[in-house]
Amino acid sequence: MKYISVEEFAKKTLGVLDDKSKELISNMNFNSDVTTLKEFCKQVTDKELRKQAAQMSKLQPVQAGIGRVLTKQQVADVLQKGSIHSPEFMNSIYKEKFGTALTDKFKFIPMKKITSFHKDIDKYVQSVIDTAKTKNNGIVDKADHLDNSANQLYFTIE
Question: What's the pLDDT score for residue 127?
């Protein structure tokens, strides 16, 4: 696929956090914006979402006495279903940015730094969407991508 409508691109890359998912997040038990994978699986019965959450929980070390955990943002990412929020994409891009520090229990990366980087990815995708709307009549093509990381992002939606 060489071209894709801007609406389809936005849905596939950013995903959609619907009202049901927002309600689920608001009803989930979070402690300092963190919940357990076990708690997530109690609330969510969809097998694919559970699988995605299990993969997402591997983006940080297992917590002693607690097990695998998910941040509130990771829960939203799983429920949103966008390709840039998938555990595979996040793992790849986080490894490129932070190396192995993210999953090393003896290293620390401030949550603020991770959140900021996550927002930068969303902003970049939004800039591709805005460019397509204003310059390409609502069509996203490879020319909208400014560098290799963007082309990698493009190929995640095919």
Answer: 87
Chain length of the chain = 158
Most confident by average pLDDT, 14-18, 125-129, 141-145, 150-154: 14-18
**Which residue is it, tokens 């979402």?**
49
- Within this chain, do residues 93 and 52 fall inside the same structural domain, yes or no? no
Q: How many domains are contained in the chain?
A: 2
Query: How is 88-119 classified by DSSP, letter by letter?
Result: HHHHHHHHHHHTTGGG-TT----HHHHHHHHH
Radius of gyration of the chain (CA): 16
Residues 6 and 30 in one domain: no
Q: What CA–CA distance (Å, rounded) separates 156 from 46?
A: 23
Q: Residue 131: CA atoms inside 13 Å, Cβ hemisphere, count?
A: 14
User: 26 with 63, same domain?
Assistant: yes
**Which residue range forms the structural domain that includes residue 52?**
17-80
pLDDT at residue 145 tops 50: no
pLDDT in tens, 70-106: 999 999 999 999 888 888 888 888 888 888 887 777 8
Q: Are residues 50 and 97 in the same domain?
A: no
